[in-house]
Design goal:
single chain, 413 residues, alpha+beta, globular
């Protein structure tokens, strides 16, 4: 930086009387160069996380800024997916420029499977994410590394989509066989994937009439996963196993959206996952995620007839960011209270409610989620803003009234 100002000083001393009239313009040029250099230095000094945040915070319509920040990010991390996605977006739909970018990315490291995977994922700017046009690049990635988890996952999913979408039996069988190959290989590489792949594999196995049908008993507990078993949020339709036009992966993708949002709130509330716990407690847990008010969780626990109630509140909002835990209280209750609530809820048909029949999902409302964990039995019911006379709402309000929380009527929705 000093060198720039020194050069500017020397240049001014060498200006002749003939050039005096141009001094103002030269100073402007020098200042502009200094500004550009300063901007570049600031951008260069930013971390990967800073640049990713800047890309996420700026609208994609600001093409020049987005492209510039994306390029700086890719200088630091050449395979950064946020950078590649945003850079491609600034060129879309100019396909030639996008193709040149990926050609160069592959040429720079042709024996690495990652550039081929990135091309398959982003060349079409997510327009054909599971299209046959991606198979060529994904297969190349697989050839380079047969143990690459993402290559196996994307190939398995891509062939599954083609299996579901295709009406021709000959092609359908070909796609089914390929999808089975890559998805079973994926499960061998990482057992946690079986929690999702068992459903498309069940359909494929039924179609091919083979013996690789994966039952629900094969669930694998994996750390850091969702707080709820996805199948309990999705409620697959009757006969889905043999409905070879029903896309079970798309159904699960919708479930993931909800599970991700719920999990984020429960993590902020510092809650554990219930469905795979084995601590011997009997537990009811009510999670209340209101769009514009604090996330709340209330738990009623029976530990060998020792009854405890706890409640937690975060300072954010259930529909946006949960914020930080700022209320964490508990108290002991009598066994009578437990028996009363337990009898009330177990006599109902609560656990038969389908989460897909929970009313209209909207923006201005709340998710009311009730869980039950009793030994190996686990249930969850997720209702969107239940009506005033709804029994489900009465059960949740029963727990709320056991706490010391005072919620204004206008905030109960």
């Amino acid at each position: 930086m000093k060198a720039v100002f020194a050069q500017a000083h020397v240049s001014q001393n060498l200006i002749s009387p003939y050039d005096l009239k141009n001094t103002s313009m030269k100073n402007k040029v020098i200042l502009l160069l200094v500004f550009v250099l300063l901007s570049d230095l600031v951008l260069f000094s930013q971390s990967v996380q800073d640049l990713e945040s800047e890309l996420k915070d700026n609208p994609i319509s600001n093409i020049l800024l987005t492209r510039r920040v994306a390029k700086e990010l890719l200088k630091i991390d050449r395979y950064n997916e946020t950078g590649i996605h945003c850079l491609v977006a600034t060129f879309y739909p100019i396909k030639d420029s996008i193709s040149i970018f990926f050609d160069n990315l592959i040429k720079s490291d042709p024996e690495n499977p990652i550039p081929y995977i990135l091309r398959a994922k982003y060349e079409y700017y997510n327009q054909h994410e599971y299209d046959s046009s991606n198979v060529t690049f994904l297969k190349k990635a697989y050839q380079l590394d047969k143990n690459n988890i993402e290559a196996n996952f994307l190939l398995g999913i891509t062939y599954y989509y083609m299996f579901i979408d295709n009406k021709n039996d000959g092609n359908k069988k070909y796609y089914a066989i390929n999808s089975r190959h890559y998805l079973t290989n994926l499960n061998e590489l990482d057992k946690c994937f079986i929690n999702e792949t068992r459903y498309p594999l069940t359909q494929i196995s039924k179609y091919l009439n083979d013996s690789i049908i994966i039952s629900n008993q094969d669930y694998t507990a994996c750390p850091g996963e969702y707080y709820y078993p996805l199948e309990l949020l999705v409620n697959l339709p009757f006969g889905w196993e043999t409905n070879f036009e029903f896309n079970v992966i798309e159904a699960f993708d919708i479930g993931k959206i909800y599970d991700r949002a719920y999990s984020k709130n429960l993590k902020a509330l510092q809650e554990p996952r219930l469905f795979d716990q084995s601590n011997g407690k009997k537990i009811y847990r009510f999670t209340w995620l209101r769009s514009f008010h604090n996330p709340i969780v209330i738990g009623l626990e029976n530990n060998n007839d020792s009854i405890a109630l706890y409640w937690k509140v975060c300072d954010g909002t259930g529909g946006h960011e949960p914020g930080n835990l700022f209320i964490d209280k508990s108290k002991e209750l009598s066994l009578t209270v437990w028996n009363e609530f337990n009898t009330l809820i177990e006599k109902s048909s609560l656990w038969n409610i389908k989460n897909t029949d929970n009313g209209d999902i909207g923006i201005d409302g709340a998710c009311w989620i009730m869980e039950r964990k009793n030994g190996n039995t686990y249930n969850v019911v997720d209702i969107w803003s239940p009506k005033e006379n709804d029994d489900f709402k009465k059960y949740c309000m029963y727990l709320l009234n056991l706490t010391d929380l005072e919620i204004p009527k206008s905030e109960i929705y």
